[in-house]
Amino acid sequence: MLARPEQLLLALIAEAAIGYPAWMFGAVGHPVTWISAGIASLERRWNHGGPVRRRAMGGLLVLLVAGGAAAIGWLAETWAGEGAAVLVVVAITTTGLAQRSLDDHVRAVARPLLGGDLGGARAAVAMIVGRDTAALDEQRVAVAAIESLAESFCDGVVAPAFWFLVAGLPGLLLCKAVNTADSMIGHRDARYLHFGWAAARTDDVVNFLPARLSGLLVCMAGMGGWRIMLRDARHHASPNGGWPEAAMAGVLQRRLGGPVTYDGEPAHRAWLGDGPAPGARDVQRSLWVYRRACLLLWILVGVIAWHL
Asked: How far is 244 from 248, CA to CA, in rounded Å?
């Protein structure tokens, strides 16, 4: 039977080559779709009452969704057992990785931005960020795309890979469930401040080590960025998001962060990095750094597989 690092390496290569295997899972949908539907349903039923009740029910939601996802992963691994059925585990693992999808989405921003189509670039970047995008200029579109690429390298690639190595398919699906819960309810607005507290804190724990590994890989891929990462990562609002974002800012020698708006409400964020704001060509540069960082992750997993 293939060891976990070997399974993961196959999944990383397969996902980068062909993306999400819709031909295999199209009839039942992507696992994140199931997780999202469960979170939305429970949130509608449970998110009411006082702060204490909301925190308790939000914590129960995270426990049920993450525990359920891990249980499904365990059942899938147990069923797969030996031989060719292990390829089913590899195929399921590809659904938890987002190397190709992330590359596709950021390239969809870079193309119109390079061509001077600001409206098309705004529409494309709105697909991958939660901030208001209608009034963004070229530089702020570039900032949004590069930040999303750097942060999602952790959330969508390194973190699920890390947890697969630690705990197999149960670990990967638990990681995806926690990340999905955080993206849906881990906000600080009036509706989710208390109900989403457990999701946000659990996501902080799950991504703690992967975020720092992501920053390390970005710096290695870009042959620099260490000083900016170590200096500015702690200024980010997230205890984890600043590591890959500050690393990317340092590698590109551009300034990320700064104020944004969400649903018309301004949000003041720290600046990351030195130098000018990025432009269209810097989005392309960030994609090459990202691709090299993914390759370094493959090499790291391959080294682990070689020594086990």
From this structure: 6
